[in-house]
Every structure is written in structure tokens, then in C-alpha cells.
């Protein structure tokens, strides 16, 4: 039983050995992230009018045809982007994110519904922008790109886009740096201490960055992508856990950037430590897509262990042997503190389960002191 769990865990960490990113793609990735990133913005009023683009001239007509086809099918929803592979240049397929930003309707323009701007970001491949190989998530960077596009909304209200060169173009040009590369910058910043951030994400610990610039503070919010919020089987679990932690005396994770590398004051565990090398290896390859896929595998493994603990706790209510197996599982997984923290929040209204969890917490404390 525990052998199979170890094998599954190792498979999760060894994502860079799979076919999702072949060796040729990885070896040249440090150049690709500089060269193959484009943006395009269209005005949409029944038809598409090009406003600005960094695409090669020969590629833009193919993109326009693709977007027109999506719009005619009603496949672009306002404010929610989608990602697909588009071959804009022969034998050069790229991942293409598209989003329709609708104009606000006014009494003077009652038929303006559906009009607005279409924003397109292109780079890497669909595997990078929208990884489908991981069952935990099908949209690797889509949420970040949606948020980034929304940040452009106020700048698009200017008549005739008089601020194109001063605001819109510089903003669009930074989409890859701001929405994708943040995970790479964070791993480069904290290095081996990435496990502290991973542990903070799983345990819903507040992170405070001091003595740093604003970009670093913003980058570290990537921790939200590492949390399990919204992924538990019961939506109330996260709310209960956050409330329990807020009432606890648990200290914040402090990242002090006055030194290089920064100093971190808090804790980690063996489960998070085991993922350090996978993150460092991907960072050496300058590959944010691979980093994000490793992060999703990390979350998937945590979810699997959490579900296993729930099953063991239910069984332990009726069997002392199941309680023994539960203790073995917690000792072997290396993530017992986080799993029990989540389990206590989720089972707070079940006295028998809370009693079992109390026994398991005492078991872990004794093991730590031994």
C-alpha cells in the first residue's frame, strides 16, 4: 500500500521526465520565452478592426480569421478567456489566449451589447498556457490572464484610444512577464526555501513580504495558486479552516528581502521539502510552464493524501486497526500537520471524528518529541 503511494508521489515530482515537454523544447526554452510572445488587440463592433499587434504581419490575418470564427459561434464570453492551439505561421503552432472585453452599455447605445475589444496573447504552446495533462486543472494560466486583461478595462474607455502608446501598448507588452513569469521569479528568489511558501499555501498561513519592491510583493501572491482553496469536496471546508486559523496563534510567514537570498521565518514539513528539487530543476531551465505543472502536481498529491486521511478517519471510528493504519499513513506522508489541520476544520461538527483526530495529533506530537 505504502509502496504504491511512494510511486505515485515520485511520478508527480518527476513531471519533467514525461512527454509533456520534450527535451528539445526544454533545452531551447530560455530563448523561446523571449522570442515567441505576442499580443494583439482588436476593436469589435460586429466586425474586427485591428488596433495594435506585435505579431508578424503575415500571421495577423490567420489570427483574425480564427477570432472571427470563434465570435460567430458565440465561443468568446465577455471577461472570460479561452485557450487553444493556433497555427498562425506554417509549422509554428502557438498557445493562443483570447478574451472579449465588452463595452459598458449606455442608454444612448442600447445595441452595444457584445461590442468591445478582443485581446489575444500568444506564446509557447497550448501545453504551456493551458495544460490538460493534469486532472486537477485544465487552465494552467487562464485565471492569471483573465485578471491581467481585466486590468486593461479602464484604459480602454479613452475615445479613439488616445492612450495607445502611453498605456495600452506597454501594458499588453508585459503580459508574459506579469502573468506567467512570476512563478519563475519567486522560485529564483527564495530557492531552497520554496518549501516554506508551499507549506504556507497548504496551511493557509498569511505571508508578509518586507524590505522589497512592489513587484516582488505582487509575485509572491503566486502562493494563492498553490493553495487548495476551492478544490476541496465541500466548499465550506476552506471557510472553516480559515476561521480556525484566524483564531489560532499560528504566526505569519515573514519573507525579509533585505538579504540575498531572503530570510524566511516560519516552518515547513517533509512533504513540502521533498518538492524543492523539482522546482529548482525547472527554474534552471527558465521554464515557467513546467514550474506551474509541477505546482499543480503538488496540489494534486496533497488533495489525494487529504482524501486518504478522510477515508482512514471514517474507518478508524469503527476499527482500532484502521486507527493504526492512519497513524502509519500520517507518519509516512510527511504532511501530517497540514492534513490534520484541514481534517479538524472539516469535521468540526462530528464529535467522533474530532476524537480520532485528537488521538492522531497526539501521536504526531509524540513522534516529533521522540
From TrEMBL:
**Chain positions covered by the region annotation Disordered:** 1-21
Q: Where is the composition biased (Polar residues)?
A: 1-11
- A cellular component term, taken from the record's GO annotations: trans-Golgi network
Q: What is one Gene Ontology biological process annotated in the Swiss-Prot or TrEMBL record?
A: vesicle tethering to Golgi
Pfam families per UniProt:
Njmu-R1
Name used for this protein in its record:
Chromosome 17 open reading frame 75
Amino acid at each position: 500500500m505504502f509502496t504504491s503511494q511512494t510511486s505515485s508521489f515520485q511520478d508527480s515530482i518527476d513531471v519533467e521526465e514525461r512527454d509533456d515537454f520534450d527535451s528539445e523544447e526544454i533545452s531551447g526554452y530560455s530563448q523561446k520565452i523571449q522570442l515567441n510572445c505576442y499580443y494583439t488587440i482588436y476593436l469589435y463592433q460586429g466586425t474586427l478592426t485591428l488596433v495594435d499587434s506585435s505579431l508578424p504581419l503575415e500571421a495577423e490575418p490567420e489570427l483574425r480569421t480564427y477570432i472571427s470564427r470563434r465570435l460567430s459561434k458565440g465561443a468568446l464570453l465577455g471577461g472570460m478567456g479561452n485557450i487553444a492551439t493556433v497555427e498562425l505561421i506554417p509549422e509554428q503552432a502557438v498557445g493562443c489566449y483570447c478574451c472579449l472585453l465588452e463595452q459598458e452599455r449606455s442608454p444612448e447605445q442600447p445595441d452595444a451589447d457584445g461590442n468591445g475589444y478582443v485581446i489575444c496573447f500568444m506564446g509557447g504552446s497550448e501545453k504551456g498556457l493551458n495544460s490538460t495533462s493534469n486532472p486537477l486543472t485544465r487552465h494552467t494560466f487562464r485565471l492569471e490572464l483573465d485578471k491581467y486583461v481585466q486590468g486593461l478595462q479602464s484604459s480602454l474607455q479613452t475615445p479613439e484610444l488616445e492612450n495607445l502608446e502611453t498605456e495600452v501598448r506597454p501594458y499588453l507588452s508585459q503580459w508574459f512577464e506579469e502573468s506567467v513569469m512570476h512563478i519563475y521569479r519567486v522560485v529564483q528568489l527564495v530557492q531552497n526555501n520554496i518549501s516554506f511558501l508551499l507549506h504556507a499555501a497548504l496551511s493557509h498561513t498569511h505571508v508578509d513580504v518586507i524590505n522589497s519592491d512592489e513587484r516582488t510583493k505582487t509575485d509572491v501572491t503566486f502562493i494563492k495558486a498553490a493553495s487548495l482553496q476551492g478544490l476541496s469536496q465541500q466548499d465550506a471546508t476552506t471557510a472553516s479552516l480559515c476561521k480556525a486559523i484566524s483564531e489560532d496563534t499560528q504566526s505569519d510567514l515573514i519573507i525579509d528581502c533585505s538579504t540575498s537570498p531572503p530570510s524566511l521565518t516560519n516552518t515547513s514539513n517533509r512533504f513540502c521539502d521533498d518538492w524543492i528539487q523539482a522546482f529548482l530543476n525547472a527554474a534552471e531551465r527558465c521554464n515557467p510552464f513546467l514550474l506551474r505543472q509541477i505546482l499543480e502536481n503538488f496540489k494534486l498529491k496533497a488533495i489525494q493524501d487529504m482524501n486518504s486521511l478522510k477515508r482512514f478517519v471514517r474507518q478508524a471510528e469503527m476499527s482500532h486497526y484502521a486507527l493504526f493504519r492512519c497513524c502509519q499513513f500520517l507518519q509516512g506522508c510527511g504532511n501530517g500537520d497540514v492534513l490534520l489541520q484541514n481534517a479538524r476544520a472539516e469535521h468540526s461538527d462530528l464529535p467522533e471524528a474530532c476524537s480520532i483526530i485528537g488521538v492522531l495529533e497526539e501521536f504526531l506530537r509524540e513522534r516529533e518529541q521522540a
